UniProtKB/TrEMBL annotation:
It comes from Geodermatophilus ruber. InterPro entries: HAMP_dom (IPR003660), MCPsignal_dom (IPR004089). This is Methyl-accepting chemotaxis protein. Residues 291-417 form the Methyl-accepting transducer domain. Pfam families: HAMP, MCPsignal.
Amino acid sequence: MSTAPQAGTTAPSSPGRHWYRDRGIATRILALSGALLFGIVAATATGAVGMNRVADLNAEADEAAAVQRTVETARYDLLWAANWQNITAWRARVDGGAVAAAPDGDNVTTYRGGAEAFERLFDLDRSQLDAEGRASLDTIEENWAVMSDYNDQIFTLWSQDRLDEGDAVSTGEKWDVFYVLDQAMTSLVESVDARVAQTEAEVEHAESETLLISLGVAALAFVVGGGVALVVARGIVRGVREIRAGLERLAGRDLTVRLPVRGRDEIGEMATALNTAAAVMASTVEEIVASADAVAASSEQLSASSAQISASAEETSAQSGVVSGAAEEVSRSVQTVAAGAEQMGASIREIASNAAEASEVAARAVSAAETTTATVAKLGDSSAEIGNVVKVITSIAEQTNLLALNATIEAARAGEA
């Protein structure tokens, strides 16, 4: 009797886990590699974005620093021009106003060089300044125009040797304008310095933030990749261990082993194959056991038949003994018949001899007749004995045929058994 192979039990799982377990090992490894690659790409992209932001902030910081240098230079140029004006006032007292304040003289030329350098401040890109800085620059430009007019008047008066008038203008309202100009210049410097400090802080913050985000993304990628690797490794290792345990049980002749089929991957296929092999082997063993039982039954039947045949053989042997005895009796009867026949032949020869003698010797007829009568009487007795022998032989032959028929029937039964 055979049994159908039993399929392995499928472990219940959620649709997502079922979909995952149906994926092959190569697909899982590729998924792991993809997760790690995604993490690397994400970390790299995050770092690249952060570095771009840092680069932009560095560019802003460089621009703010350039503005800062321009403002610092302008402040120096303003002080340079104011100092040369003061030097010209002193030289006018020493060398005379016409010499000291000559339009093409060194003093006026040096002053105008400083003034022109200072005026480059007004070419500054105002978008690089905050609102306070732009307001300060507007104040500086407005008051510088007024101060420049005052300076031109002073140099003109000094060049005409009108030194007292020139000094009066220089120490009058011009100083009020210069004070406002200097305060606005200080505010502009502070605004630009604050802008530089802010951009530098933003750069440092962006660098730290980029580093932290990159490390965070890398750590997240490591955790996700490690988690995926752990899941993949545990799934493969657990499946391999279950199959190894199943093979060990199968090697230990436990044909009832059935492994849970957790998916349609290579592990699941091996579990299904092992379950099928165990079921087929169990079915084969059951068939072998059934065949062994049938053979045992046949063996018992054969033993019974052998005993019956042995009994029949013994009976046949006994019957053979009877037949042998009958044959001996027949042989003895045949010998008797042969003796009678020989005696009959002797009698016949004697009759022939007597007949020959009767023809020659008539005298002996009576004696020969008597002898012949006696001989005929003996022949009658011999014929009766021969008839009896024939009956005995016929009876023995019938018994022999009956025994042979019985032996044939028994042999046929033994053959059927």
